[in-house]
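Known limitations

Structure tokens in this collection are predictions and should be treated as such. Users comparing against experimental data should check residue numbering before alignment. To illustrate the layout, the record for AAA+ ATPase domain-containing protein is reproduced below. The input appears on top and the generated tokens appear beneath it.
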Amino acid sequence: SLFFLWATFQQMFPDHLKIAIKEFLLSTLQQVSFFQRFSDHIITFFSPYVVISIPEYEEYYRFNHAFAAIDTYLGAKAIDKAHKLKASQVKESKGLVLKRDEAKVRDVYQGVHVWWEIVTSTDGYRTQKLTFHRRGLEIVTGSYIKYVVEEGISIEAKTKKMKLFTNNPSLNWETSKGSLWRHIDFEHPASFKTLAMDPAKKQEVLNDLEAFRNGKEYYKKIGKAWKRGYLLYGPPGTGKSTMIAAIANHLNYNIYDLELTAIQNNSELRKLLTATSSKSIIVIEDIDCSVDLTSKRKKREGDLSVKKYGEQGKEDQNQSRVTLSGLLNFIDGIWSACGQERIIIFTTNHMEKLDPALIRRGRMDMHIELSYCSFEAFKVLAKNYLDLDSHPLFSEIESLLKDTKMAPADVAEKMMAKNQNIDVDGILDDLVQSLERRRKEQRGDQDDDGHKKKSSGKKLGMFRGLF
Ligand SMILES: Nc1ncnc2c1ncn2[C@@H]1O[C@H](COP(=O)(O)OP(=O)(O)OP(=O)(O)O)[C@@H](O)[C@H]1O
Ligand SMILES: [Mg+2]
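Generated tokens:
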């Protein structure tokens, strides 16, 4: 119809008339928009409402984290009253998470009514618009916005997918789109509940983690960077890697598994570590095997006075590996300056091999020993694996565990059901026998050469196996 009308209009009116009509229409439109703008000004002038905009991107396309936090807060708010919901799966174990999916949301805070609306501009950028009565200005700007952002961040932390990062070998940094870290979703079932260790020690670690997590104000008050170092040490199979997974699950932090042997030098180490995000755990497994930290330092200190400047430089180039001082500088220096809320964990089987400078308090704040299976630890494993609180064989096992060194990994392996029917008596009987055998071996070993032979060399870490 429009085409038909247009064709008729073209034929019936002479050209100068057409131009006059066009101009008339345009000027009317301009007048309308002028009036609209004018009325907008008048309404804004007399309106009792205030509007605050929070854009998704600030200048230079910097992402505005407040926008995301507000979005999360509003998404989670009052989903029972919402008409539109959005479902997404956060973690396999946690099932579906429902979010409110509406552009306009109403909220009440300390008696002040506010309206949130997402507005999308023509070029696709979104802005959160917050409208409220001028009466509530003080409450909204004073505490409401802060409250919304903080709530949003804490909801994000609870429902976010955890990630496990591993550093790319530096040779590949150019090719793999310049990314220093690659990551996969981290879904490990370990928890403090299933971790077999002395309950008092476990509680101590848990208290420490809680104090760290809630310590934002405290760390600010004492003027210390919000970070904490843990050293986990003990023989193989005693649960060091399992504990790291349990800590990550408990705090909902990402893990950065740092493989020092894939790094060429200290500056690469610095680059990697400054690219980590906050709320994360940086893990260096088997620190004694990763880098020859101790001997290198001693050698350098000894040789320094004898060597001429040039020779020293040449040696530095040859040994262009991560050094102890590089690691220490990072922990104390840049580490403190960039990023907050981070935990660094070292693990080792040989505490005695580590340089005292590395493990002094302040760098590694807490030393946690994970040792051979105690009776308390055994009880946790029995509960996990066999759903058992007591059994006539428990007292025998208790006395055997007192003077037998068996790692929780070995005990756990013995208690794994071999088929669908769990034969509790059979399993515990087997365990008693193998404990007796182990005790005999250990006594024999001690008679021979005083101590058991140590295994050495770098193992494939638990997290490495995932890639
Ligand atoms: N304390 C423990 N509580 C529960 N399970 C444990 C414990 N220790 C070991 N295990 C079991 O043994 C397996 C191996 O343990 P894990 O990898 O944590 O040992 P590790 O101390 O890191 O050893 P390594 O020094 O060789 O790296 C785990 O998958 C877990 O099933
Ligand atoms: Mg391990």
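For this record: The longest helix spans residues 15-46. The pocket of magnesium ion (ligand 2) is lined by residues 240-241, 285, 461-462 (CB under 6 Å). Please report discrepancies through the issue tracker.
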